[in-house]
Amino acid sequence: MKLLLSRMQKKSRLLTWVMILTLLTGPSVCELPEGWVPVWIDDTAVISDEALEGALGNLGENLPKTEDIVFLVHGFAVPREASTSSYNQVAKRIHAAFAEQGRKASIVGVQWDSDLPNVFFLKIPGLYISKKLYSRRVGRQGMRQLLAGVSKKYPESSLNIFAHSMGCELVGAAIAPETDFPEDDPNAPPTVHDPTKKFELNLVVFAGSDLDYDIGVTGLKTVTDESSTIALWWMTLADTVFDPGDKVLNLRPLIRGKAWGATLPQMSEEDYDYLFSHRQLVVEASNIPTNHKYRNYYNEERISHLVPSLIYTVDPNLIAKPERLAEIDRVLEAPADPEVLRTFLDSKELSPEIYAIWRLEHLFGDGSKHLSDQYLSNIVQDLKRVPRKVSRLRGSSDCRLVREGYWPTETYMARSGAPSSVDQRGQIWQRDFQGEVVRLEKDFLTIRTPFGDDKDFDYREGETEFTPSLEGVRVGSLVKVRTDGEQLRWVHVLRLAEWLESTDEAQRTP
User: CA-to-CA distance for 73 and 131, rounded, in angstroms?
Assistant: First the structure.
């Protein structure tokens, strides 16, 4: 039995890899760079002097009086021609957004050898790790070379980075090269270009980040102290209660654990306090693309928020305060009154909600403890899987924010499908799920979705409708269900052909 389970787990991981690569890869079109300067970093992870000088020269010819410089950094399994096509689209959006503000920018497209060779898919997990190691080498060497060269030639320009997926790992290694990353050889110190140099960065964006969610406490050296060289961090968060999120990041826990781009990163209490008190962190959970693509993360809507925030961070006198930053400042400037702060907990955007949670936690005497130990993040996970468990914490939790019903709010609970909660129409919130039965007991079963979530449900004979029959449900059965909170309304056992068709359809969702 153990051998069978082991084989099933390995098969599940391999299928997960296939699904990830299906989402990552796509048709490539041969295009030339438009509106940006390409910098290619090959498998040596180093930029030759000639290539660097050529890039700096092209950058000067592009916009000799540039005011802001934006570096684009793609992620894993991206062919060079695919990154060119993607950068062409994103560069056009960036230039248009700057033009609206009456300002100019130069764009540098960092293209690194992240593509996969044509190999049997059994080798993909090993190649993923090797590319992670290589991305760190690129960050510590080639990316630092590039940043050093650009900052020296254009000392008056602001430096900004729009990174994505595994490209965030590359950028993390460039910014903090002394970081103890997983798989690094502790007996072989990494080669770092100009290891003592600190780069003054204006805006750093981590979109769909593939960094391990807990790298902030396991290895990443503190960069959020008084000597911080990053004026503003901006990150996307895909793991929300209500939206489908990023399918690649949703699958990642099956093969490596949670990603930074899928859940609020775990940091020390001191790091959280510094980031929040200085308004140096913006967290976005809206407009998350399901297919994980660079061009879809950096779409027109997100760029329309990033560029004004970038310019305002350079100099607040240049433009009016952008709405994303204004929302956070309203929370920070609100009176130290729990009843006032709780009004921000149902904010449309995630940043005001998180800042309000942070302020309330400090008012209640817990500081950033429940952020740092992941207690509050785990509640979000429970809202997705076992919302009734969260309801039981009312009145008993060690966290006053939860115990006294400040958060999750009633609206939040209702949208998650928690018992006794209703939506705005006065109806119980219903949700449909699909997955594999991994646990089956009397009146209770657990379903694992294709995205790695284990969801627990109650069922009642005579109340829950089973097709073809309850007797036909087994551990390993592929099912589609509808639930009221934790109560199953109906369960349909899928044939393999139905499962494959519905899974393929989900993968084709843009």
Answer: 14
